[in-house]
């Protein structure tokens, strides 16, 4: 433990200006004077000195000021500390004085208080295996159950190839996200939007990244509402076949009611238990799904031919199938938030344990996705249901258990995905003296605001889920509209901008291939999914 610790606070909304090097020199003098005593200008304390330095960067104004409080780890090496200072991404806006304080500056205390309330004071103490089950929970969800249905439209060859290609491409983009988390020395980009702002600029970044991330997260939550309600209904039918039937809409409402209570949990760390349970459940019901299909065997007169339908309808169904597979690779939208819970030091940056956890998650992903997709399609062929568990009947107790496992999993996944949305909702509504009044709804921060905003979001996703309970079509639409950008090509675009690989090099070609394939998936599956939703809605009796 160091005898002395100093936190240097820098206002990042100040423009860098021509005097920044002089300010850097002043920093060094004040650090030495504070900790070594006297005026020792020009001398650097040895890294062995029992003194630890840390840097806090904050913005005093701007629409996302409270979100931009960045904190480094501790170091005894002044050279490393100066690298952190030199890498501050100033947002511009004037030549405001930089603040220096021993301990936390009084000027930062209110900002810290707001940030603590807003995030629930998340601690960076997670281990690598936390990232494994958080990523598994975020990625493996309802989408795995629709993979045999996607195979029915793509066929053995194209379906298997696209599934394998998606697995490899998204593993590469996951690696890119992990590497970019600390691409600027001394700064951790804890949210997708923070990294987007760094890559595309403070004005353009939020407009590029935030809509896509919201589509992914809101789309997931709507699908989870539908999945949870349908699986509860299936569980009840198998557990008590003679009981009075209950409408599917009511089951979705029951599932949504659970989240009115769970949505009040404060932050990412508080849902760790749900994430762990959800990760275990996902592996369990995926195993039951493919093992049940294997035990069921092939149905009579099974056919692997392409479904008989009009050319136009079949084309749109193929496009929708691409989106369904894309939906199955959903972890990128919260990857940076997961990595933000892991401690990082110059000796052991967070990317090392995070990548270890991501590899573990993708291994679990593979042993869930490929058997379910291939064995499910082998058993039912073109007649497979869009949720393969719905096609299984025996053994009854096992299939009923699998449906209940799906319910537990999507409960955890819903909370995992919504954590960042809840932060944004509350931040958009609370009153902050540092911002213009017309930019906020001016609600005081507290339990009442959390209760209202989070409950309103649950009501919104619940209403959409009850109104449009088209599982397969929703997967295809949101898979293309939201998941293709965040998982397939946005990380590659940011990698090209930030890392600037040599033109026509292997990395350059890989990134451009990922971008082009991702764009095709986004356009095709969005069109296919939307068309299928419209078609199915025309013959569906709502709220039944």
UniProtKB/TrEMBL annotation:
Q: Which PANTHER family match?
A: OS05G0424000 PROTEIN-RELATED
One Gene Ontology term of the biological-process aspect is: amino acid transport
Q: Which organism is it from?
A: Hevea brasiliensis
What compartments host this protein? Endomembrane system
Query: By what name is this protein known?
Result: Uncharacterized protein
Bilayer topology term: Multi-pass membrane protein
One GO CC annotation: endomembrane system
TM stretches of this protein: 128-147, 248-265, 271-294, 359-380, 451-471, 477-497, 509-530
Tell me which residues make up the Mediator of RNA polymerase II transcription subunit 25 von Willebrand factor type A domain: 3-116
Q: Say what the protein does.
A: Carrier protein involved in proton-driven auxin influx. Mediates the formation of auxin gradient from developing leaves (site of auxin biosynthesis) to tips by contributing to the loading of auxin in vascular tissues and facilitating acropetal (base to tip) auxin transport within inner tissues of the root apex, and basipetal (tip to base) auxin transport within outer tissues of the root apex. May be involved in lateral roots and nodules formation.
InterPro entries attached to this UniProt entry: AA_transpt_TM, Mediator_Med25_VWA
